[in-house]
């Protein structure tokens, strides 16, 4: 994650929809190039779900990105939850918690999108 003295949740630099258009999104709102992701872009993507990202969100998003780096694909729901339970045990991760935090029933799809990653395979 960000190694500066401020947490991603406290960074307030706005990213506009023009910025997202410049970066490029696919037809479902996923970044075309996941290396362009920043915490500010994550917040802009989260705004589409009416979610204000907190430090807990950013910790989850970083783990989702780490999963992608480690396994070379975006996680689907069950592997995502198992991975988060292992890497973030202090958060008591469950599907219900992720639905609540990210304001969606399509957890894997939208968590990957906010994390700047492609839609997982076999995802509706």
TrEMBL record:
First-level EC class: transferase
GO biological process: tRNA wobble position uridine thiolation
Enzyme Commission number, as recorded: 2.8.1.-
Subcellular location: Cytoplasm
A cellular component annotation (GO) from this entry: cytoplasm
Major localisation: cytoplasm
InterPro entries assigned: DsrC-like_C, DsrC-like_dom_sf, DsrC-like_N, DsrC/TusE
A UniProt-annotated Pfam family: DsrC
Active site: 123 (cysteine persulfide intermediate)
The keyword Mitochondrion appears for this protein: no
Coiled-coil annotated residue ranges, if any: none
UniProt keyword list: Cytoplasm, Transferase
Domain of life the protein comes from: Bacteria
One term of GO molecular function: sulfur carrier activity
Function: Part of a sulfur-relay system.
Stated family: Belongs to the dsrC/tusE family.
Protein name, entry field: Sulfurtransferase
């Amino acid at each position: 994650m960000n190694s500066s003295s401020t947490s991603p949740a406290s960074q307030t630099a706005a990213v506009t929809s023009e910025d997202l258009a410049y970066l490029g999104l696919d037809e479902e709102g996923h970044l075309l190039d996941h290396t362009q992701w920043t915490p500010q872009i994550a917040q802009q993507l989260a705004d589409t779900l009416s979610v204000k990202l907190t430090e807990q969100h950013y910790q989850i998003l970083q783990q989702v990105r780490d999963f992608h780096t480690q396994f070379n694909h975006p996680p689907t729901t069950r592997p995502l939850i198992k991975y988060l339970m292992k890497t973030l045990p202090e958060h008591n991760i469950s599907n219900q918690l992720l639905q609540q935090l990210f304001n969606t029933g399509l957890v894997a799809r939208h968590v990957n999108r906010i994390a700047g990653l492609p839609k997982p395979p076999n995802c509706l």
